[in-house]
UniProtKB/TrEMBL annotation:
Keyword annotations of the record: NADP, Oxidoreductase
Any single Pfam family the record assigns to this protein: Epimerase
Repeat as UniProt keyword: no
Span of domain NAD-dependent epimerase/dehydratase: 8-245
CDD domains, alphabetized: FR_SDR_e
UniProt cross-references to SUPFAM superfamilies, sorted A to Z: NAD(P)-binding Rossmann-fold domains
Alphabetized InterPro entries for the sequence: Epimerase_deHydtase, NAD(P)-bd_dom_sf, NAD(P)_dehydrat-like
Name recorded for this polypeptide: NAD-dependent epimerase/dehydratase domain-containing protein
UniProt-recorded Gene Ontology molecular function terms: oxidoreductase activity, acting on the CH-OH group of donors, NAD or NADP as acceptor
Keyword check for Protease: no
């Protein structure tokens, strides 16, 4: 008799990171329940084309704010990868409704459903946005898993996405601890790398704009970068390694945007890069804890080249 495959659920299966997590889980012979808001939407078609999707991927229509829809997707699963959360490309008119509520109540609903369905382990995808927004952190001191973004600072500076991720992660932590759930949190930095989906997500759109927009001047802000495939590996590692616990920062390279542009120019000289830079801040982060768990990351060149080639193939750079 064939062995029953392990069932796991991925929320936000059709998104940028979610698609890679689904792809890697299918390649490792998991049976995947993927949540999408609209299964018939053209933007989710790529999922059915993934290897083994026809046998081992089942899509569930679920909105994070609709508890019953979330629970239906999670019932029967031993593991859950909570990836879904709004990630806007631009400022949103109503952050409470568009960002904070789906992130925070959505995380609560997922954690509650995991508890009800007796899920063995939950992986929550948070973000460096929940870690680094702290004006009082001493410049030059490395940030690690003990660091949290300052919610008041996020509010006063209107960094609503950072606030949504900080509050969502706090929610996961509080619910998970109170209810004895086995959960692990992964906080990726700015994710780049090839697209599986046909739409452009916010973090890829940042790189596309650097190539196309010919900005007169840009602030030389610090960027931490990690490859989407390495983040997907990290969340699988956090799920599969029994000793994984707590939070893990997941980042590979720190650089100013000016250095990133210089790197891009050396690989692809002929795009319309920003013309000049103004001074920006800096921060330093470390993924040592994740590396001790067995995580490694690919060279930056590979991420940048595979990103650009995937945009070219999709006709996005024309
Ligand atoms: N990309 C980055 O640089 C980065 C860095 C750190 C952390 N992260 C985190 O990684 C996760 C995935 O981000 P991504 O870059 O892959 O973004 P993405 O492509 O925009 O994916 C976000 C996903 O969340 C889903 N979603 C949003 N609101 C929802 C709701 N109310 N109900 C159900 N699903 C909802 C979206 O579904 P629809 O397709 O239906 O809209 C989409 O599948 C997020 O938690 C994000 O905060 C991303």
């Amino acid at each position: 008799m064939a062995l029953e495959k392990e069932r796991v659920c991925v929320t936000g299966a059709g998104g940028y990171l979610g698609s890679w997590v689904v792809k890697f889980l299918l390649s490792k012979d998991y049976f995947v329940h993927g949540t999408v808001r609209e299964p018939s939407d053209e933007k989710n078609v790529h999922l059915s084309k993934l290897d083994k999707a026809s046998e081992n991927l089942k899509l569930f229509k679920a909105d994070l704010l609709d508890y019953d829809s979330v629970l239906s997707a999670i019932v029967g699963c031993t593991g859950v990868f909570h990836v879904a959360s709004p990630v806007p490309s631009t400022t949103v008119p109503n952050p409470e409704v568009e960002l904070i509520e789906p992130a925070v109540k959505g995380t609560f609903n997922v954690m509650k459903a995991c508890h009800e369905a007796k899920v063995k382990r939950v992986i929550v995808v948070s973000s460096l946005a929940a870690v680094v927004m702290n004006p009082n952190w001493p410049e030059g001191q490395v940030m690690d898993e003990t660091c949290w973004s300052d919610k008041e600072f996020c509010k006063t500076t209107k960094k609503w996405y950072c606030l949504s991720k900080t509050e969502a992660e706090s929610e996961a932590l509080e619910y998970g601890k109170k209810n004895g759930l086995d959960f692990v949190i992964v906080c990726p930095s700015h994710i780049l790398g090839p697209l599986l989906q046909s739409t452009v997500n916010a973090s890829s759109s940042f790189l596309i704009k650097l190539l196309k927009e010919s900005y007169e001047s840009m602030e030389n802000q610090p960027r931490d970068i990690v490859d989407v495939r390495d983040v997907a590996e990290a969340v699988l590692l956090a799920y599969e390694k029994p000793e994984a616990e707590g939070r893990y920062l997941c980042t590979a390279y720190t650089m100013g945007i000016r250095d990133l542009v210089d790197k891009m120019k050396s690989l692809y000289p002929n795009y319309n890069y920003p013309k000049s830079f103004t001074k920006g801040g800096q921060f330093m982060t470390s993924s040592e804890k994740l590396q001790r768990l067995g995580w490694s990351y690919r060279p930056l060149e590979e991420t940048l080249i595979d990103s650009v080639e995937s945009y070219r193939k999709a006709g996005i750079l024309n």
